[in-house]
Amino acid sequence: MLAAVAAGLAVLTPAADAQVGTGPWISDSPGYSEQERGCGQISGLTFQLTCSTASGDQRAERRYTTYTGGTHQFEGSFKITSMSGSRISLKQTFRDGSNAGPYFMLAVEKGGRMYAVEGGATLGSGATVGTSVRVNTINQVGSSHKVYLNGSLKQTISSPGGSYYDKFGSYRTASGAGPITVQWSGIRFWHK
């Protein structure tokens, strides 16, 4: 009888397993702030750049709490619902503190190519209007930063020690311009 009750409880307890990477993972709920600049607009999990301006600070993003050390995973899916612009960053891992600034930026071009802004490496294709893409990043601070698209590892780069934070939404890169509307869903965080 006790074994049956314990088995029933195990089924009802949600697992903290992440979509990618080896665990065990512990679920996180970091705080965030929203950033709307230039022609950036946020409505729930919909992020827009409403203009075609190719200069200035054009962004609509969520910026999550800074972390230092450990291993941290982000997961979220994006679907572009309209895009006549190009070269828009959708997911970022930023450094904070004395080394503050962009560290990893996943961007998309109008044809659906997904690439790392730093270095320009192609990470995938198919990010076209109406198609959902799942993004996972795993930052093992002081070791490596990994990028997964739809569950497949696409990039591993060195991760220096220090402080970092996650951002997602829509952000005009230095060579990009809107407009774009992107909907995010399934936002989850873990650490170990």
Mean pLDDT: 92
In total, how many beta strands?
16
Roughly how many Å is the radius of gyration? 18 Å
Cα distance, first to last residue? 34 Å
Keywords: Signal
Signal peptide: 1-18
Protein name: LamG domain-containing protein
Verbal overview:
It comes from Amycolatopsis nalaikhensis. This is LamG domain-containing protein. With 192 residues, the protein is mainly beta. It is built from 1 helix and 16 strands. The chain has one helix at 2-12; strands at 26-28, 32-37, 40-43, 46-49, 59-64, 67-68, 71-83, 86-96, 101-108, 114-116, 122-124, 132-140, 144-149, 152-158, 163-177, 180-191. Strand 12 and strand 13 form a beta hairpin. The chain is globular.
Write the layout of secondary structure elements.
Blueprint: H1 2-12, E1 26-28, E2 32-37, E3 40-43, E4 46-49, E5 59-64, E6 67-68, E7 71-83, E8 86-96, E9 101-108, E10 114-116, E11 122-124, E12 132-140, E13 144-149, E14 152-158, E15 163-177, E16 180-191
Antiparallel strand pairs: 1-16, 2-5, 3-4, 4-16, 5-15, 6-15, 7-12, 7-16, 8-9, 8-15, 9-10, 10-11, 12-13, 13-14
